[in-house]
Design goal:
Helix content: 25-40%
Strand order of the largest sheet: 7-6-5-8-9
CATH architecture of the largest domain: 3-Layer(aba) Sandwich
Structural class: alpha/beta
Low-confidence stretches: none
CATH topology of the largest domain: Rossmann fold
CATH superfamily of the largest domain: Aspartate/ornithine carbamoyltransferase
Order of helices and strands: HEHEHEHEHEHEEHEHHEHH
Shape: globular
């Protein structure tokens, strides 16, 4: 079926077929990125504005590089350099960007729902690069793309997401995508960060690390997000690590062929030991690399490209 969406706002609203289309397009772009000449003219003449009103390293750089690999012109704005520091509203900032003839906005914002809000008032595509604790759709897409590369069909695969689920937009996007792909998802962590109401999303909730990790084929660690917590959800980082940090002994509970993932940034020695983060089972850097191809796919498709046409973008 043809790709018809102008915006990418959530993974909750995507069908499995649409997720498959993005992954297939990312596969084609990843092959292009492995060539000596990594640039294609697919978006030549287009201007993409990366409006990042929250701090970011990987996501912002990956969107920037993805756009440039597609030959688009890129302008990046952060909170410190935008007029939001002077009291300008998000609406006025975005409408001014559109009035300057930008062709797309990639938005990261602390307020959940802000990309949806802009999509309703602008005439150009809006891509969600993370909105509060709501969703981070391109991270969910690159994570599941990486899982598929390593494991193939995800139907019935046991995936454990471990850590700060309550405040994690990454967890929510992965849950939506993995549910559509048929994976068996278990959320694990302190009860204060993994409340039982997450079961309404079709996942299993566990507060026992050993039973959660047993025979898991994927474990995704999540950072403790102090910036989103209004009060302490556990006594100390040391206590969290002693109960839920992934170390060599606890990794032995996993399936022998399991992969270890982390969306970054990593708090080494807190959610995961360096030995595991840098070990042969870790695909953390593969996630970063795949993030470029996946974001190329999203930009290309939301500008009207079609998955089957990638082979002709040269």
């Amino acid at each position: 079926m043809p790709w018809t969406r102008r915006h990418l706002l959530t993974l909750e609203e995507l069908s499995l077929a649409e997720i498959d289309q993005i992954h297939a397009t990312a596969t084609a772009f990843k092959k292009i990125l492995q060539r000596n000449v990594k640039k294609v003219p697919a978006l030549r003449g287009k201007t993409i504005v990366n409006l990042f009103l929250e701090p970011s390293t990987r996501t912002r750089m990956a969107f920037d590089m993805a756009a440039k690999r597609l030959s688009a012109d890129v302008i990046s704005l952060d909170g410190a350099s935008s007029s939001t520091t002077k009291g300008e509203t998000l609406r006025d900032t975005a409408q001014n960007i559109q009035a300057l003839n930008a062709d797309m906005i990639v938005l990261r914002h602390a307020a959940s729902g802000s990309p949806l809000y802009l999509s309703r008032i602008l005439d150009i595509p809006v891509i969600n690069a993370g909105d509060g604790a709501h969703e981070h759709p391109t991270q969910g897409l690159l994570d599941t793309f990486t899982m598929r590369e390593r494991l193939g069909n995800m139907k019935g695969r046991k995936v454990v997401i471990l850590g700060d689920i309550l405040f994690s937009r990454v967890a929510r996007s992965n849950i939506h995508a993995l549910a559509k792909m048929g994976a068996a998802v278990t959320l694990c962590g302190p009860s204060t960060l993994v409340p039982d109401w997450f079961t309404a999303m079709g996942v299993k909730v566990s507060h026992d690390l050993k039973s959660a990790l047993e025979d898991a084929e994927v474990v995704m660690l999540l950072r403790i997000q102090h910036e989103r917590q209004s009060n302490g959800h556990f006594p100390s980082l040391g206590e969290y690590t002693s109960m839920f940090g992934l170390n060599k002994t606890r990794a032995s509970w996993l399936n022998p062929k399991a992969i270890i993932m982390h969306p970054g940034p990593i708090n080494r020695g807190v959610e995961i030991d360096s030995e595991l983060a840098d070990g042969e089972r870790s695909v953390i850097l593969e996630q970063v690399t795949n993030g470029i191809a996946v974001r190329m796919a999203v930009l290309y498709l939301c500008f009207g490209g079609q998955p089957e046409s990638v082979v002709t973008v040269d």
